DNA sequence: AATGGCCCCAACCGCCGTTTC
DNA sequence: AGAAACGGCGGTTGGGGCCAT
C-alpha cells in the first residue's frame, strides 16, 4: 500500500463519531467494496478495518452478552468436530462472530481443561471429581450473570430457563439478548437513515427465527447432526 | 492508595482464496 | 490469462478493567 496513505490511516479503538459515520455509509452503500467505502466516508481507516468493525461489533444482527449454555455446548462440540474453524462454527451460531467464538474458546477451554485436570487428579486419588465439575459449572453460571449485569443489559434470562433452551439458536430475544445503551444507539442510527429497511429486517428476523419449531437443540443435536446442520443453515437463508 | 498480575476482548496482522478488470 | 483488488480466515497483540496484596 502507498506509504503516505498508510501514514494517515487511523488505528486503535474506534470513536463513536467514526462508528456513526461508518453505519451511515454502510446503510447507504451496502456491506461491500470496503476500501471504496472507507475512502468515500472520509474515515481515516482502512477498508479492512471498517469491515472488521462492522462484522464484529456494529452489525445490529449481532448478539451481545455472554454465551448461553446451549451456545457453549455447540461451540465445544463443533470444535471437537472441526477444530479451529471459527468462521465455520460461527455460521452455526447466528449473531455470534468468529472472533467472539475464538475469544470465548481461548478463555473457557483453558478453564475447562484445568477443571478436567483437577478431576483426573482427584479421581486418581480415589474421588469421583463430580463435585469439582459441579463447582466449575457453578462458577461459570455466576460469571455469566455478573458479566451481563456489568454491561447494563435490560434483562438476563437464566441459562437454565426452559424458554431459552427450547428456542435454541433461534432469535435474539430468546437468548435474553439485551439492549445495551450503545446497541440502542446503533439501532437508532440505522433507523434514522432507513426506517423501512430496519423494520423489514426485524420482521424478517422474526420469521426466520422459526420459534414455532420449538426444538431443544442441545439435547438432540448429537443424535441428529445432519438435521441440525440443515436447520441452522436454514436460519441464514 | 499503589501496584502487579490476570482476564477479556476489540483490533490488528499476515496469509490465502476469490473476484474483478 | 494474469495482475490487482477485495474479502475471509486464523493467529496474535495490546489495553482497559478487575482483583488481590
Automatic annotation (TrEMBL):
Q: Where is the HTH myb-type domain?
A: 6-58, 59-113
What biological process terms from GO does the record include?
response to absence of light
Q: What's in the GO CC field?
A: nucleus
User: Per the UniProt record, which residue ranges are transmembrane?
Assistant: none
- Where is the protein found, in the record's own terms? Nucleus
UniProt GO molecular function: DNA-binding transcription factor activity; sequence-specific DNA binding
Which PROSITE patterns did the record assign?
A: HTH_MYB, MYB_LIKE
| Statement: the UniProt record of this protein carries the keyword Transcription regulation | yes
Q: Which SMART domains match?
A: SANT
Keyword Calcium on entry: no
**Where does this protein chiefly localize?**
nucleus
Domain Myb-like span(s) in chain numbering: 6-58, 59-109
Keyword terms of this UniProt record:
DNA-binding, Nucleus, Repeat, Transcription, Transcription regulation
Task: Spell out the PANTHER family in the cross-references.
Answer: MYB TRANSCRIPTION FACTOR-RELATED-RELATED (PTHR45675), TRANSCRIPTION FACTOR MYB27 (PTHR45675:SF8)
Protein name, please? AtMYB27
Species name: Arabidopsis lyrata subsp. lyrata (Lyre-leaved rock-cress)
Amino acid at each position: 500500500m502507498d506509504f503516505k496513505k498508510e501514514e494517515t490511516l487511523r488505528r486503535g479503538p474506534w470513536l463513536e463519531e467514526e462508528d456513526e459515520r461508518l453505519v451511515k455509509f454502510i446503510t447507504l452503500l451496502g456491506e461491500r467494496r470496503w476500501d471504496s467505502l472507507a475512502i468515500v466516508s472520509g474515515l481515516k481507516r482502512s477498508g479492512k478495518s471498517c469491515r472488521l468493525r462492522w462484522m464484529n461489533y456494529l452489525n445490529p444482527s449481532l448478539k451481545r452478552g455472554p454465551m448461553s449454555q446451549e451456545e457453549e455446548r455447540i461451540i465445544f462440540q463443533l470444535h471437537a468436530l472441526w477444530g479451529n474453524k471459527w468462521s465455520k462454527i460461527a455460521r452455526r451460531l447466528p449473531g455470534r462472530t468468529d472472533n467472539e467464538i475464538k475469544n470465548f474458546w481461548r478463555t473457557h477451554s483453558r478453564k475447562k481443561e484445568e477443571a478436567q485436570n483437577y478431576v483426573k487428579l482427584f479421581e486418581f486419588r480415589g474421588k469421583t471429581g463430580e463435585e469439582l465439575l459441579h463447582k466449575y459449572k457453578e462458577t461459570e453460571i455466576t460469571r455469566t450473570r455478573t458479566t451481563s449485569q456489568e454491561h447494563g443489559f435490560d434483562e438476563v434470562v437464566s441459562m437454565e430457563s426452559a424458554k431459552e433452551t427450547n428456542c435454541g439458536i433461534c432469535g435474539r430475544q430468546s437468548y435474553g439478548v439485551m439492549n445495551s445503551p450503545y446497541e440502542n444507539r446503533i439501532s437508532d442510527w440505522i433507523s434514522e437513515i432507513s426506517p423501512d429497511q430496519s423494520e423489514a429486517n426485524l420482521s424478517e428476523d422474526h420469521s426466520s427465527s422459526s420459534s414455532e419449531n420449538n426444538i431443544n437443540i442441545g439435547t438432540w443435536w448429537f443424535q441428529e447432526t445432519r438435521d441440525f446442520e440443515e436447520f441452522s443453515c436454514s436460519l441464514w437463508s
